[in-house]
Hints:
Elements: E1 36-39, E2 45-48, H1 96-101, H2 107-123, H3 128-142, H4 146-158, H5 162-176, H6 182-191, H7 195-202, H8 212-228, H9 232-239, E3 248-249, H10 253-266, H11 270-287, E4 294-295, H12 299-305
Antiparallel strand pairs: 1-2, 3-4
Amino acid sequence: MTDSRDDRSSRPRRSGPSGSSDRPRRGGNDRGSQPRRSSDRDGEKRLWTRDGKPARGDRDAREPEVNRDPFGTRSVRPRHDDPDLPDSVTPEHLERGARNELKTLTKENQEFVARHLAMAAQLIEEDPELAHRHATSAARRGGRIGIVRESLAITAYATGDFGLALRELRTYRRITGRDDQLPLMVDSERGLGRPDRALELGRSVTRSSLPVPVQVELAIAMSGARLDQGDAEAALLELEIPQLDPTTAYSYSPALFAAYATVLEDLGREEEAATWWRRADVAAEALDPAPDTIEIVEEEEVESSE
């Protein structure tokens, strides 16, 4: 969870799958010639007169209803018991940029939400279900904050609830206007068994408008959707991007190299796949000491040292 969007160290993390939240508006009721009561979707009783007009005191049913929940806050309102928060967990455990997004909340709610988001980030790998409960608690008090809905989406994805993840990501996108979680939206469509919609969604944004790490994540997600369709050749083409450079390691390089190796294996190109698996390992080892960009040895030196 971060303000810069390129450093995601404090937001819940996720991995790819292996394989509008706007509420409906009420419409007019079918009116006949006799007075009668009818129920709308909220269970409200309406009395209609013989000429088909609402009785006195009732608003015109033809008037569009104002959306009083534009950010889908009610979607996180069902009964929920807040998980315990250790006394040792404080708002300072949440990255500063994420804490800054909570400043529109009251002081009490800021502390409550920040502590639950910090717990969600800590638990996402070892216990995604519990992480999701913490994110849900945060969303119940900070549901109109982008970072909160983003965390709820990521933890839902980690538990395999791709439908909820997609809904929350749409809400996050609507609140913030950001496309940085587009790869996770594509993967959520994949998780729901809809590769065609995943590809359509991935093509809905100009790729060059995204930060480079997000471009790479999107290429991997799109490649996975192509594999879901059984088109390994197209999946390989999705990954052949400028960032597929074996001489330099970036934070996204190990995942990109591994994805490329996976598709090569599916195509039966075993020797090439083995080479890219080695490159993925080398990149991961090079990045282990620090997250910054690190120049790695030339391919000939790597292979001669193995």
